[in-house]
Amino acid sequence: MMADIFSASFITGLIGATLRMSTPIILATLGEIITERAGVLNLGIEGIMLFGAASGFLATLATGNLWFGILMAALSGVLLALLMSFLAVNLGLSQHVAGLGITIFASGLAMFIYRKAVGSPVVPPTVHPFSPLAIPFLSDIPFIGESFFKQYFLTYITWALIPLVSIFLFRTRFGLRIRTMGQNPFAADTVGVNVNRTRTICLAIGGALFGVAGAFLTLAHQNMFLIDVVGGRGWIAIAMTIFGNWNPLMGSLGGLMFGFLDALQLRLQSVGIHLPIHVFLMIPYLMTIVALVGVSRKATVPAGLLKPYRREEKGG
Amino acid sequence: MVGLSIVRRQTLPPWAEILLPVAAIFATLIIGALPIVLAGGNLFKAYSSLVYGALGTRFNLLETLVKASPLILTGLAVSFAFRARFWNIGAEGQLFAGAIAATAVGVYGTALPSWLVIPACIVSGFIAGGLWAVLPAFLKTKLKVDDVVTTLLLNYVMIHVMGFLLYGPMQAAGSSWPRSEPIMDAAHYPILLPRSRLHLGLVIAIVMVLAIWFINARTVFGYRSKCVGVNINAAHFSGVNTDMTILKTALISGGLAGLAGVGEVCAIHYHLLMDISPGYGYTGIVIAMLGNLHPVGVALSAFFFSCISIGSQTMSRMAGIPVYIEGVI
Prior knowledge:
The structure holds two protein chains of two kinds.
Chain A: H1 2-5, H2 8-37, H3 45-63, H4 66-90, H5 95-118, E1 133-134, H6 144-148, E2 150-151, H7 153-171, H8 173-183, H9 185-190, H10 195-221, H11 233-243, H12 248-270, H13 277-295
Antiparallel strand pairs in A: 1-2
Helix pairs in contact in A: 2-7, 2-10, 2-11, 2-12, 3-4, 3-5, 3-10, 3-11, 4-5, 4-10, 7-8, 11-12, 11-13, 12-13
Chain B: H1 14-38, H2 43-56, H3 58-83, H4 91-108, H5 114-143, H6 147-167, H7 200-218, H8 220-230, H9 232-237, H10 242-269, H11 280-290, H12 295-319, H13 325-328
Helix pairs in contact in B: 2-3, 2-12, 3-7, 3-10, 3-11, 3-12, 4-5, 4-6, 4-10, 4-11, 5-6, 5-10, 7-8, 7-10, 7-12, 8-10, 11-12
């Protein structure tokens, strides 16, 4: 049994699965980091991911086109994020309450449109999901090729997005504006940034990423829509945002860690290590809490987070 | 010259505080109408059958009250925590913790005298739920870990704890299903009215509404808890032990959610099973918000949600609308 664990195929399989499983977490974490850097906590993330999972799946089921599904998931994510923006940015409601409301609303709506579209068949409908894309030559490298270069196209995109989001936030004018606004919306307003509009744009970008992250689960990771398909991954992304100290690189590292634990528990089961399955399933969530305990005391929360912006209330 | 300046009113007048939730309910019904119309249903028929389904017959009305009991408790749990700005999103997990504890007493507490079984179930369920909420409160106060995230993640941990127990040590002998042995008869909540499922849980829920109202309005602790929510720094500098206040608030909040779990085990299912709660803990958040975090408001909004939940079963049948509309509303 130990020999099974240390075999090359187990390890390449584990690394490959880690990258796959971390894809939706990293996508959602990147979205949440952009959103929170602008000063808005979007607790609608879990519901938006579930709605993206449903709308992406249904769009693909109807048209047979996987990329159309991804597009619809992104669009529906944007729409729900705009609703969040209306509630939390324009009306200035409590971000906690508005976000949770969006999650509950979007989850209900996801279930509703799914049932409306497919009814209640005994066997849930499936789509032909994305297949892994082997990169020529690179995928032929022993071990490494198998693990790193036979992934889904969305996984490659996700990995490309990590440095892109970093550069966007830390090396562009727009990124500087976002960060200023997250720290001190009054300062940002003084130098001519339209705070509420910029927050809305950030929420929309985040919403698109949440939607795609959800659709990854139904169009690549699995090939059907189940009610618990997201299974708390949105909340994990919120945790990873804090864990990564609102930094895309660190947050993605956290996502990778969660993906690893998720992949490990699946793999250990498949080689027949008989610990009770539920103890395994608990591990990623427990480790996330432990990781948060480790970093939270020195976390530097964006100072403007949770604060709605009203020009006339100087000093907030 | 007296310098007058006009400032915006910071607080809402009392009539607005009552009117806003009512407006929210109307908005909900209007938004709820959209999918009904899109789904090709008859709006008037849909809503009239909703009201009939929830309140129209003795049976339906009693079922609505049965459903309201856990919702009142989880709504209270969330509202009491939110009032102190302890963002307890973990009522679902705390409900499970209470259900597990009550089952443990109800199945294995055979040595107890029978009059003591129900109180033991209630107390152990309250403590189990409370402790499951104290854990994230402790992480918040001592280690500054975000409470939204920890309470949420602990829901998933508790689901798997329950899965572990029900596929392992607590699984009923000879059963391949994830369910516990049935609890003993002495642990069954008494039924309040003959020919119904209306049980002690509703009384407990109403007593808790009054108790929380009393704590909020009449005790020093309730006042401190509110101060912590309004301005934690001010509370701290005026000598309130804010950490202890948050921990106590969490204990009560989790305990209330735990009681909802006790009720589901001791009065509805009579054993523990995986789907003991169709999301009562999460619905509790909406109920608490709609009830304006006030205990009486929570009781009313729990009743409203219960009406929709029970009513929509009939509504779906009569107007041909999927039951998931309830979730949307």
